[in-house]
Design a protein that fits this description.
Blueprint (H helix, E strand, L loop, with lengths): L10 E7 L7 H12 L2 H5 L2 E6 L11 H24 L3 E6 L4 H13 L3 E5 L20 H5 L5 H6 L10 E6 L4 H7 L5 E4 H7 L1 H12 L6 E6 L21 H9 L7 E7 L9 H15 L5
Parallel strand pairs: 1-2, 1-3, 3-8, 4-5, 4-7, 5-6, 7-8
Helix pairs in contact: 1-11, 3-4, 8-9, 10-11
């Protein structure tokens, strides 16, 4: 791993154009909406499009077929992450629903080896089909990266060698019973919104970086925008009140320690309610990316 991994590289925007994980068709079109609003031009980024080969507009699959559609898309996202790095770019995945996370982190691991994960999200996404109240696969993605869940989902992320102790969560505030049982094992550093309110977001970010990095290993940063308060990000699949404010997250990302050990970035779950959301969402995603990667813009 190069210690200056991100400073000297242009950005690759990798569009994870899928909504099957959240069962929200708007998520499938969200990355293209962000491009249409000018995100790539504002970042001077090269675009790697990853379209879902079965659109939600023309398919009504079973659960098993839906999972396979998602797995195929995960593999395409992973391939795009690997290709972008090999071509000298810094990978930034934009979603789409959060099933992109498996391809994102597995792709980073395929190039860089074992990495930590910083998971900025309202939800732990530690469900499996047996524990999920909704059955929606976007809530099972971190579980798959940590080797729990269906065989096909775990296999899709097989390159990821992250273990529980290398995972840090920030802003979690909507936890299902099965996920809570996992978190109660005590190996994942889960800093809930209650923790953030008590200790401050800076403390959470600093602790997350410490958890996810070693002297030799870096990390991938995932931001699901539903971690933000719905007042700032109403256009998500599953909004939950009481989140992090956008300006505060931007400020702490700008001051994030060990930034040189961040090997990739993911910003997901923009789910437009109407075309009127696109400009505001583009501005929000732009702010998050430029805060995390100030030297690239």
């Amino acid at each position: 791993m190069e210690s200056t991994a991100y400073q000297s590289k242009p950005i690759a925007l990798i569009t994870a154009e899928i909504g099957w994980g959240s069962m929200k068709s708007a998520a499938e079109s969200a990355p293209q909406a962000l491009l249409d609003a000018g995100l790539a031009e504002r970042l001077d980024a090269k675009v790697f499009r990853v379209q879902c080969l079965k659109s939600m507009s023309d398919a009504s699959p079973s659960y098993e077929e839906t999972e396979q559609i998602i797995v195929n898309h995960i593999l395409d996202v992973k391939a795009a992450v690997i290709q972008s790095i090999q071509e000298g770019y810094f990978p930034v995945v934009i979603g789409g629903d959060h099933t992109s996370a498996i391809g994102f982190h597995a792709g980073l691991a395929a190039v860089y080896g074992e990495l930590g994960i910083i998971w900025v999200d309202t939800h732990p996404d530690l469900n499996t089909l047996e524990t999920s109240p909704s059955g929606h696969i976007h809530g099972m993605v971190l579980a798959a990266l940590l080797k729990r869940g269906s065989e096909s989902m775990v296999s899709a992320g097989r390159e990821c060698q992250t273990n529980d102790s290398q995972v840090a969560m920030i802003g979690t505030r909507d936890i299902d019973a099965g996920e809570l049982a996992w978190l109660n094992e005590g190996n994942i550093n889960c800093m809930t919104m209650d923790f953030v309110r008590r200790n401050g977001l800076k403390s959470a970010v600093d602790q997350a970086v410490t958890t996810a990095t070693t002297e030799t290993n870096g990390f991938g940063l995932t931001i699901d925008i539903d971690v933000l308060d719905p007042e700032d990000a109403p256009f998500v699949a599953t909004p939950v009140d009481g989140g992090i404010r956008l300006d505060e997250l931007v400020s702490e990302l700008c001051d994030m320690p060990k930034r040189e050990q961040m090997m990739g970035l993911e910003v997901t779950e923009y789910t437009p309610r109407s075309r009127d959301d696109d400009e505001a969402a583009c501005e929000l995603v732009y702010k998050l990316i430029t805060a995390a990667l100030p030297s690239l813009v």
